[in-house]
Amino acid sequence: MAGPCSCHYTTFDLSKGGMVVSGAATTDLPQVRLEIEDGDIYATGIDGLVYGYRNNLRDGTPIEAATEE
């Protein structure tokens, strides 16, 4: 379980894909897909729609990771 969220006092069940258990939220939490490669963790996608967006793409191009200079 996670919550209650301080923004809208909703409790989510993370063991059930971020499902709303109680509170004001109208959608479940989106889940970030992760992969581990050579000890590094990468976000490879999102399951579920991010609230407030029609799709989860950013102009259809991958978002580059920040690099240190």
TrEMBL record:
SUPFAM superfamilies: ISP domain (SSF50022). Coiled coil: none annotated. Residues 1-43 form the Rieske domain. GO terms for molecular function: 2 iron, 2 sulfur cluster binding; metal ion binding. Keywords: 2Fe-2S, Iron, Iron-sulfur, Metal-binding. This is Arsenite oxidase small subunit AoxA. It comes from Halorubrum kocurii JCM 14978.
